[in-house]
Write a structure and sequence with these properties.
Elements: H1 5-12, E1 17-18, E2 20-25, E3 31-36, E4 39-43, E5 48-54, H2 58-65, E6 68-73, H3 79-85, E7 98-100, E8 106-108, E9 113-125, E10 128-140, E11 147-149, E12 152-154
Antiparallel strand pairs: 1-11, 2-3, 2-6, 4-5, 5-10, 6-9, 7-8, 9-10, 11-12
The chain binds flavin mononucleotide.
């Protein structure tokens, strides 16, 4: 007997995570951004991270052909940014506080960390793809994290 979708979602919602926004460009140089909690460190040498992206998202198509992506680790002040990149919008980047990173992609200001990654590998995994990136540049800042737990945003306290 296998677990139902609801049972699986319910169990996974008990795993508290941080929240990131992944930014990439598609083949037409259009920017894509997606809120992602399925982010993890993979290896120290070389420095690798992974993200799991649902195949139906616009970002999936962009990442499938992307050379680079940035991981923006959100702070407790950035719940609206998380909602913005988790919803459909014709221009998610409109009026956003951001700068251009060393790999030419936007990095979001006000984050706890910005990781600039070179695409290393894509692994097919059910209805998601695991994208692995090698971190080329890392920028870190002070602050508290945005936490996602049981389908809701939380603070540290
Ligand atoms: C807190 C949070 C975490 C999420 N984590 C993921 C994730 O790890 N992978 C994923 O594919 N979608 C995740 N999503 C859903 C995407 O953000 C959502 O489908 C988004 O609208 C896709 O945008 P796009 O189609 O413009 O790329 C998450 C949403 C929220 C609110």
């Amino acid at each position: 007997m296998s677990v139902t979708g609801n049972e699986f979602r319910n169990a996974m919602s008990r795993f508290a995570s941080g929240v990131t926004v992944i930014v990439s460009k598609d083949a037409d140089e259009r920017l894509h951004g997606i809120t992602v909690s399925a982010f993890s460190s993979v290896s120290l040498s070389p420095p690798l991270v992974l993200i799991c992206i649902e195949k139906t998202t616009g970002s999936h198509e962009a990442l499938a052909s992307a050379e680079h992506f940035t991981v923006n680790v959100l702070s407790s002040e950035q719940q609206e940014t998380s909602q913005r990149f988790a919803s459909w919008s014709p221009d998610k980047f409109n009026d956003l506080d951001m700068t251009t990173g060393e790999l030419g992609l936007p990095i979001l200001n006000g984050c706890l960390a910005n990781l600039e990654c070179k695409m290393s590998q894509a692994i097919d995994a059910g209805d998601h793809t695991i994208f692995i990136g090698e971190v080329a540049h890392a920028h870190v800042f002070e602050g508290d994290p945005l936490i996602y737990f049981r389908s809701d945003y939380r603070g540290l306290e």
